[in-house]
Amino acid sequence: MNDYIRKWHDIILNCSFDNTYKMAWAKALVELAVHTDVSIDKNAIVYSFYDVAKLCLKYYWNQTIYFDLIQSPNIRKPPEIITLTKKLIKLYFDKKQSVKPVRFEKVDFHSLGLSTKYEWTVSKIVKTLKQDVCWRFKKLKGKTYEIYDLDLNAGNVIFQSDHVLALKEHSDYLFTFINYRWTQMLEGFNYSPRISRKVRAIDDGEIRRGSLKKFHKYLDLMNENGKRICFYCGHEIAENELSVDHVIPWSYMFSDDLWNLVYCHKGENSGKSNRLPSEEDIARLEQRNRLLLARMNNKSKDYIQLQIAIEKDYVRKFWISFKG
Ligand SMILES: [Zn+2]
Fold first, then answer.
1. Hey, which residues does 160 pair with through a beta bridge?
2. Where along the chain do its domains lie?
3. Which of 104, 158, 273, 288 has a Cα-to-Cα distance from 67 of 20 to 30 A?
4. What is the pLDDT of residues 180-221, one digit of tens each?
5. Which of 228, 235, 309, 231 is nearest to 277 (CA)?
6. Residue 263: in which H helix or E strand, if any?
7. Distance (Å, rounded) from C-alpha 90 to C-alpha 99?
8. Beta-carbon neighbours within 5 Å of ion ligand 1
9. For residue 303, what is the enclosing H or E element?
10. How many angstroms separate the alpha carbon of residue 223 from the centre of ligand 1?
11. What is the pTM of this model?
């Protein structure tokens, strides 16, 4: 490994942390390097804190809006950048009058009339990066690694061009390694399942929800007199009103499991209302699962998974960890 990349490796692997800022900072710098056209005659390449801050906001926006990942051990006092990100997300939801998650890259703050708020948020992130992150990231066990220079007055991070070239060349490795460490940190303060898949999904572009149609054949086994019944209100569901819902929210589980899926009316979908399932819902879901298992007569993979979920008490265990 190139000496310069070795330094990054050592910092990422061994840095102290009380939140995930350093990982966001590192990832943003590598992402900027990837998009830099390095010509040989240039000896210094300059990135503004403003551009780094925008990328940090992107990572935190996407991790928060989709999965509500906690970024520090103290839940009551979240890191400032997270508080700022959450405020911006809240404003966005208010404008859209919907809590449907959208990737940061697709949000047009200007046309929503939120550009002032957006710029203000980025400037606050710049301030935090300057004060707490940029110089700390270079320090490891009392030693400073000269991986870049800082010009705090001008608001710039300055790199030698061959270093940017090295970051570019090793960017796949660095992104994977940063995500790995970021995931490890998150696992220290999040109890939701599939954290590494969630972190990876953020980078994969489209966070797609698979079609739930394939579960209809099982959920239909719970029909009454050939009619589909809403899990929440108990009334019949017309074809155009039909929705399949994750009782414990998809954003938490990040998985489609028969034991967690029910029919409901479109408007009652948990994703739309951010509903926290009640103990009564949970008890009914457990009962439903036992009945459903009894009605499934083939020993398919889905049957076995449902059987395991019942035996291992997944509904209650995930519900307890979800409500925290
Ligand atoms: Zn209903």
1. 44
2. 3-203, 213-323
3. 288
4. 999 999 999 888 999 999 999 888 877 777 789 999 999 999
5. 231
6. strand 261-265
7. 9
8. 230, 232-233, 265, 268
9. helix 301-311
10. 14
11. 0.87
